[in-house]
């Protein structure tokens, strides 16, 4: 179910050179990205450890582009205010990591940010159907979370379409983001199914023609599905 919502390209910074992170986010902004995603991993909910709020805060003043924090952590409620304070305008929590998902999403709003909810490949749309009125975005993972560079799971496209149909049926103002294996070869499948926020990591940083070319190519390919 293609969408008429504006397409946005959001890079994951996982493939970036962490020793030059300030320069890397500046380069992403120059390339024309719409937001920058910080993949926050705790080594428990997912088998990897990445960024904390202090690191994000250290580069916040290098760019004007918005930040989003994708919290792949167990019981994230307690740390949400720290990521908002670090400069993240959008906070994504996983449905699978929250015992009381309503409470956590309300906590994001109370901390001063927009709330979003993510679902892993094995999690059905039904698990977030009752919180769609509390979020500005749903993230459908197209890989199992934890590591960059994984292969796109194309069987998630019917789930994206199911979610888009539900959002439209209810008349909600909710974006659908996809994250995992998004590249020129896969972006149209995700966009054609109804996603409009496209997270890419390796495909952007490994483009031999540079970040600007990579961002433009993904955006144009996504937009072609709406035509």
Could you characterize the architecture of this molecule?
The protein is globular, with a radius of gyration of 16 Å. Strand 4 (88-94), helix 4 and strand 5 form a beta-alpha-beta unit. The two termini are 13 Å apart. The chain is built from eight helices and eight strands, in the order βαβαβαβαββαβαβαα. It has one domain (8-226): TIM Barrel (Alpha-Beta Barrel), CATH 3.20.20.70. The chain has helices spanning 21-31, 53-59, 80-85, 101-111, 157-170, 187-193, 202-205, 211-226, and strands at residues 8-11, 36-41, 67-72, 88-94, 114-119, 137-141, 175-179, 197-200. It is of the alpha/beta class and 227 residues long. The model has no long low-confidence stretch (mean pLDDT 96). Helix 1 (21-31) packs across helix 8 (211-226). The protein has an eight-stranded parallel β-sheet.
For the biggest sheet, the summary is: 8 strands, parallel
SSE string: EHEHEHEHEEHEHEHH
Tell me the radius of gyration: 16 Å
Q: List segments where confidence is low: pLDDT < 50 over at least 5 consecutive residues.
A: none
Outline of this structure?
By secondary structure, this protein is of the alpha/beta class. It has eight helices and eight strands, in the order E-H-E-H-E-H-E-H-E-E-H-E-H-E-H-H.
């Amino acid at each position: 179910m293609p969408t008429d919502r504006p397409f946005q390209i959001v890079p994951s910074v996982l493939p970036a050179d962490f020793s030059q992170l300030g320069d890397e986010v500046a380069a992403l902004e120059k390339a024309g990205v719409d937001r920058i995603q910080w993949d926050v991993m705790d080594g428990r909910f997912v088998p990897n450890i990445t960024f904390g709020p202090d690191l994000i805060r250290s580069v916040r003043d290098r760019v004007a582009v918005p930040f989003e924090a994708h919290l792949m952590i167990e019981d994230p409620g307690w740390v949400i205010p720290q990521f908002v304070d670090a400069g993240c305008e959008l906070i994504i929590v996983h449905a699978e990591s929250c015992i009381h998902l309503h409470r956590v999403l309300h906590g994001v709003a109370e901390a001063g940010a927009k709330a979003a909810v993510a679902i892993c490949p094995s999690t059905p749309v039904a698990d977030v159907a009752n919180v769609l009125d509390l979020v500005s975005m749903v993230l459908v993972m197209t890989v199992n979370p934890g590591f960059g560079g994984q292969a796109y799971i194309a069987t998630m496209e019917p789930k994206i379409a199911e979610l888009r149909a539900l959002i439209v049926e209810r008349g909600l103002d909710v974006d659908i983001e996809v994250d995992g294996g998004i590249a020129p070869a896969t972006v149209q499948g995700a966009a054609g199914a109804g996603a409009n926020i496209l997270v890419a990591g390796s495909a952007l940083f490994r483009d031999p023609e540079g970040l600007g070319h990579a961002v433009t190519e993904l955006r144009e390919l996504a937009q072609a599905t709406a035509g």
